[in-house]
Write a structure and sequence with these properties.
A: four-stranded mixed β-sheet; 8 helices; 10 strands; about 40% helix; about 25% strand; B: fumarase
Chain lengths: ~280, ~180
């Protein structure tokens, strides 16, 4: 049985959130750079160039890519033969977040839903845990800004609406968001499961690397079709008009109830910040 | 920064505001004021109670922004725009009192667009999520009101060559509508 001390979890979570917020993943940087050529609008091209200059500046100055350093979404994949020692796992993640947002000069964006009073340290984080075979702990962090998260939705479709209904829903959400979620966006789609599973699947879909198609051929084709249709809306970079509205679309699917067709759409901005570590 | 772009300064003169065209990129210099949801709510409550704005807004520009904390040795942290639509209920009143410009991201309501046309104001877009790049254009920052609001306090920023796109001009043009129409397939 492998033992992992909570102190190690605290320091890894701290490092991951700081790095994620400052250093845009190379794959995303490359995707934005490649999009400049595909973008037909001169204004759109200029916006994409600004995004690359911004990512360079953030790295050089060790400053967050975006001032909205998000809620601290954390995924834990815990090997079932692992024993967490020295304290409470959730508290360890919370402490890591607390330290990251203080030491990294990240904005604290977590507040009471009604009074809007800030919790002061960007906690509590949003922690998702999954028990998996084997040993070890994989920690993935996804600081998620409010502007893009506001354009997500779960909808229970009629089963008869099928694939075309799902696609229409995704396009409706992209059009509704328009410039607000900071395009070029990445779209995560969760299909099936039940109400909450579809939402979680849509978030997990956002964690698929840009450019990677689903292993399921039908879903891969749907991802390609949706990407093309989203880019035909004309919304473009920052919504100023153009041919690059989304950088990618990822779909995750699970079986659902005979009576249901749950679908969730989760939108991510161009500052798609993600980091992971394996302990 | 490229020099072929047009440079404008605050306070925004009426003829300068009137000459800006939707879709144009400009570099803004001078003083601007940050304010978002909570500060706007307080502006309006103050005005309703017969009080005065914490700064004279005539000819001025408000930036919808809640910056990240300034790291040691820096003037300000990352400071990109927030979504403007949340301020739509408050903005027409401020524009009618002489506010000349707003900087943010995302579409505005018909009420705001109408006020911009009527009172000759301009809505600018700063690139959302380009907070580090925008922070580089800030040369000084000072909290001038509502310090208790934390990241939502009103901060007077001195900016130099802040890159902006004109979204809504005084003639009623809208970059979001026209841009999208041009590239829709």
């Amino acid at each position: 049985m492998r033992e992992i001390h909570v102190d190690d979890i605290v320091s890894v979570v701290e490092r991951l959130f700081i790095d994620a917020n400052i250093d845009l993943p190379d794959a995303m940087y490359g995707a934005i750079r490649d999009a400049i050529e595909r973008e037909n609008s001169p204004v759109g091209k200029e916006v994409l160039r600004e995004l690359l200059r911004n990512a360079d500046t953030a790295r050089e100055e060790r400053m967050p890519i975006c001032q909205d350093t998000g809620l601290a979404v954390t995924f834990l994949e815990i090997g079932q033969d692992t024993h967490i020692v020295g304290g409470d796992l959730t508290e360890a993640v919370t402490e890591g977040v607390r330290r990251a947002y203080r030491k990294g000069y990240l904005r604290k964006s977590c507040c009471h839903p009604f009074t809007r009073k800030n919790t002061g340290d960007n906690t509590p984080p949003i922690v998702h845990t999954k028990i998996v075979p084997g040993e070890g702990l994989r920690i993935t962090v996804l600081p998620k800004g409010g502007g893009s998260e506001n354009y997500g939705e779960v909808r229970m479709l009629m089963p008869a609406q099928g694939k075309e209904g799902v696609k229409a829903f995704v396009l409706e959400m992209v059009r509704k968001g328009g410039p607000n979620p900071c395009p070029p966006i990445t779209v995560g789609v969760g299909i099936g499961g039940n109400f909450e599973t579809s939402a979680l699947l849509s978030k997990e879909a956002l964690m698929v690397p840009v450019g990677k198609r689903s292993d399921d051929e039908e879903l891969a084709a749907m991802e390609r079709e949706l990407l093309e249709e989203i880019n035909a809306t004309g919304i473009g970079p920052q919504g100023y008009g153009g041919t690059v509205t989304a950088l990618d679309v990822h779909i995750r699917m699970a079986p659902c109830h005979l009576a249901s067709l749950p679908v969730a759409v989760n939108i991510q901005c161009h500052a798609h910040r993600i980091r992971e570590a394996l302990l | 920064m490229k020099t072929d772009l047009r440079r404008i300064t605050t306070p925004l003169a009426d003829d300068v505001a009137g000459s800006l065209k939707a879709g144009e990129k400009v570099l803004l210099s001078g003083f601007i004021y940050t304010a978002r949801d909570a500060a706007h709510k307080r502006f309006i409550e103050t005005l309703d109670a017969g009080g005065e704005m914490p700064f004279d807004i005539k000819g001025q520009v408000i930036y919808y922004c809640g910056p990240a904390p300034a790291p040691p040795g820096k003037v300000i942290g990352s400071c990109g725009p927030t979504t403007s639509s949340r301020m739509d209920v408050y903005a027409p009143r401020l524009v009618s009192l002489g506010l000349k410009g707003m900087i943010g991201k995302g579409k505005r309501s018909e009420g705001v667009k109408g006020a911009l046309k009527e009172f000759r104001g301009v809505y600018f877009g700063a690139t959302g999520g380009a907070g580090a790049l925008l922070a580089r254009t800030v040369v000084a920052a000072k909290v001038i009101a509502y310090e208790d609001l934390g990241p939502e306090a009103v901060v007077r920023l001195e900016v130099r060559d802040m890159p902006l796109f004109v979204i809504n001009d005084v003639h009623g043009n809208d970059l979001y509508e026209e841009g999208m129409k041009s590239y829709r397939k």
